[in-house]
């Protein structure tokens, strides 16, 4: 039996199943075999290669290696593709929270995704991830941060909901400023 072509929304959800839940098989479901990942880092608080070619390398970078260092990963899309759409391109901002396995430190970051899709089969052809802010908070803040994060609708939420529930931690201000910027 042939599976129907996934929608763009389903591909984005597969990506989070892979990355956030440490399940590389979902990356293979979302990305074309020859897909390309580009990383634009505007912070020194996290490291990634600037480019990765091929779905196996993307799974290795964003799932296997990432999962060796981080846990409790929750990433949120701040926009959603139209239901049932199979798009050529989709861009949106994102928010992430996670803990460092070794230190327990909390990381909260944000940036933007620029997705490009191929038509047949409908898969991710190219993903550019810009990391605009990545704040490192002490392990003692985990309770407050994850009470906030786990109360958000996952994986699709909006800026107002994010801001309304954010704990009053000065270290989060760069992330909240980015999400509240003009024209966002």
Descriptive overview:
- Helices cover 30% and strands 34% of the residues.
- With 184 residues, the protein is an alpha+beta fold.
- Strands 2-1-6-5-4-3 form a 6-stranded mixed beta sheet, with helices on both faces.
Note the topology.
Elements: H1 8-19, H2 25-30, E1 31-41, E2 51-53, H3 55-69, E3 70-77, E4 89-100, E5 106-118, E6 123-137, H4 142-149, H5 159-165, H6 173-179
Parallel strand pairs: 1-6
Antiparallel strand pairs: 1-2, 3-4, 4-5, 5-6
Q: What structural class is derived from the secondary structure elements? A: alpha+beta
Low-pLDDT segments, ≥5 res: none
Shape: globular
Query: How many β-strands, per DSSP?
Result: 6
Order of helices and strands: HHEEHEEEEHHH
Radius of gyration: 16 Å
Note the beta-strand portion: 25-35%
Largest sheet: 6 strands, mixed
- The end-to-end span amounts to 43 Å
Number of helices: 6
- Average pLDDT works out at 95
Give, in spatial order, the strands making up the sheet with the most strands. Answer: 2-1-6-5-4-3
Please estimate the helix content.
Answer: 25-40%
In short:
This protein has helices at 8-19, 25-30, 55-69, 142-149, 159-165, 173-179, and strands at residues 31-41, 51-53, 70-77, 89-100, 106-118, 123-137.
Features:
six-stranded mixed β-sheet; alpha+beta; single chain; 6 strands; 184 residues; 30% helix; globular
């Amino acid at each position: 039996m042939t599976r129907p072509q996934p929608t763009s929304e389903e591909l984005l959800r597969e990506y989070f199943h892979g990355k956030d839940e440490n399940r590389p098989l979902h990356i293979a479901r979302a990305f074309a075999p020859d897909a390309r990942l580009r990383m634009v880092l505007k912070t020194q608080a996290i490291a990634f290669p600037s480019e990765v070619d091929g779905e196996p390398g993307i799974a290795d970078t964003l799932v296997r290696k990432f999962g060796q260092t981080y846990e409790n990963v929750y990433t949120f899309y701040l926009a959603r593709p139209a239901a049932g759409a199979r798009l050529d391109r989709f861009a949106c901002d994102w928010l992430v929270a996670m803990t460092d396995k070794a230190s327990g430190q909390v990381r909260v970051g944000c940036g933007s995704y620029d997705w490009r899709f191929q038509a047949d089969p409908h898969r991710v052809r190219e993903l550019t991830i810009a990391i605009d802010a990545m704040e490192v908070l002490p392990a003692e803040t985990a309770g407050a941060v994850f009470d906030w994060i786990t109360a958000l609708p996952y994986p699709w939420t909006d800026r107002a909901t994010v801001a309304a529930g954010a704990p009053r931690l000065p270290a989060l201000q760069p992330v909240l400023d980015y999400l509240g910027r003009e024209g966002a």
